[in-house]
Amino acid sequence: MNEQPQGSETNPLHSIADELSATLDKETVELADERVGQVTGGQVIMKSSAAQRVQASAAQMEESAAALVRAGSLDTHESAIGLVIARKATLRDSTVSLVAAGQVRAERVRTLAILGGRVEGEVTTVLTPLTALLAGAGFALTLLGMTHLLGKNRKKTR
Predict the structure, then answer these.
(1) Residue 60: which of 71, 68, 52 has the closest Cα?
(2) What is the predicted pLDDT for the residue at 122?
(3) Distance CA 154, CA 146 (A)
(4) What is the CA radius of gyration of the chain?
(5) Quick check: pTM over 0.90?
(6) Rounded distance, CA 110 to CA 123, Å?
(7) Which residues pair with 148 in a beta bridge?
(8) How far, in Å, CA of 21 to CA of 35, rounded?
(9) Taking a C-beta distance cutoff of 8 angstroms, is the pair 15, 30 a contact?
Protein backbone atom coordinates (compact mmCIF):
# COMPACT_ATOMS: atom_id res chain seq x y z
CA MET A 1 0.00 0.00 0.00
CA ASN A 2 1.45 3.38 -0.97
CA GLU A 3 2.05 5.87 1.82
CA GLN A 4 0.41 9.27 1.48
CA PRO A 5 2.48 12.36 2.29
CA GLN A 6 1.49 14.03 5.54
CA GLY A 7 2.29 17.61 4.52
CA SER A 8 -0.14 20.43 5.17
CA GLU A 9 -0.48 21.15 1.46
CA THR A 10 -2.11 17.74 0.90
CA ASN A 11 -4.43 17.72 3.91
CA PRO A 12 -7.81 19.35 3.21
CA LEU A 13 -8.54 19.41 6.95
CA HIS A 14 -6.00 22.22 7.37
CA SER A 15 -7.97 24.69 5.26
CA ILE A 16 -11.24 23.70 6.95
CA ALA A 17 -9.60 24.01 10.36
CA ASP A 18 -8.21 27.45 9.52
CA GLU A 19 -11.70 28.63 8.54
CA LEU A 20 -13.24 27.18 11.70
CA SER A 21 -10.52 28.74 13.85
CA ALA A 22 -11.19 32.16 12.33
CA THR A 23 -14.93 31.75 12.79
CA LEU A 24 -14.52 30.77 16.42
CA ASP A 25 -11.91 33.47 17.03
CA LYS A 26 -9.54 30.90 18.48
CA GLU A 27 -5.89 30.60 17.65
CA THR A 28 -4.18 27.57 16.25
CA VAL A 29 -2.38 25.64 18.98
CA GLU A 30 0.66 23.60 17.97
CA LEU A 31 2.36 21.13 20.29
CA ALA A 32 5.61 19.37 19.46
CA ASP A 33 7.24 16.98 21.93
CA GLU A 34 5.16 18.35 24.81
CA ARG A 35 2.98 16.99 27.62
CA VAL A 36 0.00 19.03 28.75
CA GLY A 37 -3.10 18.54 30.86
CA GLN A 38 -5.58 20.24 28.56
CA VAL A 39 -5.35 21.93 25.19
CA THR A 40 -8.17 23.96 23.64
CA GLY A 41 -8.19 25.77 20.32
CA GLY A 42 -9.88 26.29 17.02
CA GLN A 43 -7.24 24.09 15.45
CA VAL A 44 -4.97 21.86 17.52
CA ILE A 45 -1.92 20.24 15.93
CA MET A 46 -0.03 17.70 18.02
CA LYS A 47 3.24 16.04 16.97
CA SER A 48 4.88 13.52 19.30
CA SER A 49 2.92 15.02 22.20
CA ALA A 50 0.55 13.92 24.94
CA ALA A 51 -2.50 15.57 26.47
CA GLN A 52 -5.11 14.47 28.95
CA ARG A 53 -7.86 16.38 27.16
CA VAL A 54 -8.07 17.97 23.71
CA GLN A 55 -10.97 20.18 22.64
CA ALA A 56 -10.94 21.73 19.18
CA SER A 57 -12.93 22.52 16.10
CA ALA A 58 -10.28 20.55 14.21
CA ALA A 59 -7.51 18.43 15.66
CA GLN A 60 -4.58 16.72 14.00
CA MET A 61 -2.49 14.21 15.93
CA GLU A 62 0.75 12.71 14.63
CA GLU A 63 2.44 10.10 16.86
CA SER A 64 0.62 11.54 19.86
CA ALA A 65 -1.57 10.39 22.73
CA ALA A 66 -4.63 11.76 24.51
CA ALA A 67 -7.12 10.47 27.04
CA LEU A 68 -10.10 12.41 25.60
CA VAL A 69 -10.50 14.22 22.28
CA ARG A 70 -13.60 16.29 21.46
CA ALA A 71 -13.45 17.78 17.99
CA GLY A 72 -15.53 18.73 15.01
CA SER A 73 -12.99 16.97 12.81
CA LEU A 74 -10.12 14.76 13.90
CA ASP A 75 -7.20 13.43 11.87
CA THR A 76 -4.80 10.97 13.52
CA HIS A 77 -1.73 9.09 12.36
CA GLU A 78 0.09 6.60 14.59
CA SER A 79 -1.62 7.91 17.71
CA ALA A 80 -3.37 6.50 20.78
CA ILE A 81 -6.57 7.93 22.26
CA GLY A 82 -8.84 6.78 25.07
CA LEU A 83 -12.13 8.35 23.92
CA VAL A 84 -12.95 10.22 20.72
CA ILE A 85 -16.08 12.32 20.31
CA ALA A 86 -16.21 13.96 16.89
CA ARG A 87 -18.43 14.80 13.96
CA LYS A 88 -15.82 13.46 11.53
CA ALA A 89 -12.83 11.29 12.41
CA THR A 90 -10.07 10.12 10.08
CA LEU A 91 -7.92 7.58 11.89
CA ARG A 92 -4.77 6.00 10.43
CA ASP A 93 -2.56 3.39 12.10
CA SER A 94 -4.00 4.35 15.48
CA THR A 95 -5.40 2.75 18.62
CA VAL A 96 -8.56 4.24 20.09
CA SER A 97 -10.49 2.67 22.97
CA LEU A 98 -13.88 4.12 22.02
CA VAL A 99 -14.94 6.21 19.03
CA ALA A 100 -18.24 8.10 18.86
CA ALA A 101 -18.49 10.01 15.59
CA GLY A 102 -20.90 10.84 12.80
CA GLN A 103 -18.40 9.78 10.13
CA VAL A 104 -15.37 7.56 10.62
CA ARG A 105 -12.69 6.79 8.02
CA ALA A 106 -10.20 4.27 9.29
CA GLU A 107 -7.01 2.66 8.05
CA ARG A 108 -5.50 -0.04 10.25
CA VAL A 109 -7.26 1.07 13.44
CA ARG A 110 -7.62 -0.96 16.63
CA THR A 111 -10.52 -0.18 18.96
CA LEU A 112 -12.81 -1.64 21.60
CA ALA A 113 -15.92 -0.21 19.94
CA ILE A 114 -17.05 2.33 17.36
CA LEU A 115 -20.35 4.17 17.57
CA GLY A 116 -20.75 5.90 14.25
CA GLY A 117 -23.31 6.93 11.71
CA ARG A 118 -21.02 5.97 8.84
CA VAL A 119 -17.86 3.88 9.23
CA GLU A 120 -15.48 3.15 6.35
CA GLY A 121 -12.17 1.36 6.27
CA GLU A 122 -10.13 -1.25 8.08
CA VAL A 123 -11.03 -1.50 11.76
CA THR A 124 -10.20 -4.26 14.23
CA THR A 125 -12.69 -4.20 17.09
CA VAL A 126 -12.25 -6.11 20.31
CA LEU A 127 -15.87 -5.67 21.39
CA THR A 128 -18.04 -7.54 18.90
CA PRO A 129 -21.65 -8.46 19.71
CA LEU A 130 -20.49 -11.95 20.74
CA THR A 131 -17.67 -10.73 23.00
CA ALA A 132 -20.02 -8.16 24.56
CA LEU A 133 -22.52 -10.94 25.30
CA LEU A 134 -19.81 -13.15 26.78
CA ALA A 135 -18.43 -10.30 28.90
CA GLY A 136 -21.92 -9.51 30.18
CA ALA A 137 -22.59 -13.15 31.00
CA GLY A 138 -19.25 -13.42 32.78
CA PHE A 139 -19.99 -10.31 34.80
CA ALA A 140 -23.47 -11.59 35.72
CA LEU A 141 -22.08 -14.97 36.84
CA THR A 142 -19.37 -13.26 38.89
CA LEU A 143 -21.94 -11.00 40.53
CA LEU A 144 -24.24 -13.95 41.23
CA GLY A 145 -21.36 -15.97 42.71
CA MET A 146 -20.24 -13.08 44.93
CA THR A 147 -23.75 -12.50 46.31
CA HIS A 148 -24.10 -16.24 46.94
CA LEU A 149 -20.76 -16.35 48.84
CA LEU A 150 -21.55 -13.20 50.80
CA GLY A 151 -24.96 -14.61 51.70
CA LYS A 152 -23.35 -17.76 53.16
CA ASN A 153 -20.82 -15.71 55.15
CA ARG A 154 -23.59 -13.59 56.69
CA LYS A 155 -25.50 -16.68 57.83
CA LYS A 156 -22.36 -18.13 59.49
CA THR A 157 -21.56 -14.94 61.44
CA ARG A 158 -25.03 -14.61 62.99
Answers:
(1) 71
(2) 86
(3) 12
(4) 20
(5) no
(6) 6
(7) none
(8) 23
(9) no
